[in-house]
Design goal:
The protein is an alpha+beta fold. The chain is built from 6 helices and 7 strands, in the order αβββαααβαβββα. The longest helix has 21 residues.
């Protein structure tokens, strides 16, 4: 009996050494190091499961005045994000953006996120073709804010030079002024 226990334990140890470790199936698509690589259209529900993304979201404290200004927005804006789930810049900036949009609320911003591999090429037919030349990002994350007609209002590449909530207000302010003038005529 004791011999069978040793053989069973040895079999388990050997099997653990031979069986390769794979990324979680829901996050499959390849991996770089220990970071899963999400490719194609992705959601926050997928990203928050990637190590460090939820912590980045939780740690960010958006500026209350900038959030109030975003809540007062009247138009509708589309935000398209190209990110690398494996990228530290994406892990910093994208959760901040998601938190800003969650806290601003109001439904004035729609968010589309697309994961890329290390080629930085978007392989998703739903991706808006005019956002990136050749469907290839220069760096990730690339965050593009579009008006209701698909015209670009602003872009953040890799690192936001100011808080994202402030940049969003800067990007949409000219459009908001135009909307107010149009409605008052």
């Amino acid at each position: 009996m004791r011999r069978n226990v040793r053989i069973g334990a040895l079999t388990i140890v050997l099997a653990a050494l031979v069986v390769p470790v794979h990324p979680v199936p829901a996050l499959a698509g390849g991996a770089h190091g220990s970071q899963p690589m999400l490719v194609g259209r992705v959601s926050w529900a997928q990203l928050e499961k990637v190590k460090g993304w939820q912590a980045s979201y939780d740690a960010y404290r958006p500026d209350p005045a900038a959030l109030a200004a975003l809540r007062a927005v009247k138009g509708h804006y589309r935000i398209v994000v190209v990110l690398g789930s494996w990228c530290s810049d994406s892990r910093r900036e994208v959760p901040r953006l998601v938190k800003v949009l969650h806290e601003a609320g109001g439904g004035h911003f729609s968010l589309e996120m697309y994961g890329v591999d290390h080629s930085l090429r978007v392989h998703d037919p739903a991706f808006p073709k005019d956002v990136l030349p050749g469907l290839k990002a220069e760096r990730v994350p690339t965050i593009v804010v579009l008006d209701r007609d698909g015209q670009e209002l602003g872009r953040v590449v890799e690192t936001a030079e100011r808080p994202l909530e402030t940049l969003l207000n800067t990007f949409v302010a000219p459009e908001e002024r135009r909307e107010r003038r149009w409605k008052s005529q």
